[in-house]
Amino acid sequence: MTETTSGPARGSRAKAGKPEKAEKAGRPAGGLRVERIHTTPGVHPYDEVVWERRDVVMTNWRDGSVNFEQRGVEFPEFWSVNAANIVTSKYFRGAVGTPQRETSLKQLIDRVVKTYRAAGEEHGYFASPADAEIFEHELAYAVLHQVFSFNSPVWFNVGTQQPQQVSACFILSVDDSMESILDWYKEEGMIFKGGSGAGLNLSRIRSSKELLSSGGNASGPVSFMRGADASAGTIKSGGATRRAAKMVVLDVDHPDIEAFIETKVKEEEKIRALRDAGFDMDLGGDDITSVQYQNANNSVRVNDAFMKAVESGSKFGLRARMTGEVLEEVDARALFRKMAEAAHVCADPGIQYDDTINHWHTSPESGRISASNPCSEYMHLDNSSCNLASLNLMKFLRDDAEGNQAFDAERFAKVVELVITAMDISICFADFPTAKIGETTRAFRQLGIGYANLGALLMATGHAYDSDGGRALAGAITSLMTGTSYRRSAELAATVGPYEGYARNSSAHNRVMKQHAEANDSARRMDDLDTPVWAAATEAWQDVLRLGKKNGFRNAQASVLAPTGTIGLMMDCDTTGVEPDLALVKFKKLVGGGSMQIVNNTVPKALKRLGYQDEQVEAIVAHIADHGNVVDAPGLKPEHYEVFDCAMGERAISPMGHVRMMAAAQPFLSGAISKTVNMPSSSTVEDVEEIYLQGWKLGTKALAVYVENSKVGQPLSAKKKDDAKADTTEEKPVEKVIEYRPVRRRLPKGRPGITTSFTVGGAEGYMTANSYPDDGLGEVFLKMSKQGSTLAGMMDAFSIAVSVGLQYGVPLETYVSKFTNMRFEPAGMTDDPDVRMAQSIVDYIFRRLALDFLPFETRSALGIHSAAERERHLETGSYEPDDDLDVESLAQSAPRRAEQPPAAPQPPEAEAPAPAAAHNSTELAEMQFGLNADAPLCFSCGTKMRRAGSCYLCEGCGSTSGCS
Question: Catalytic pick from 377, 417, 779, 869?
Answer without folding.
Answer: 377
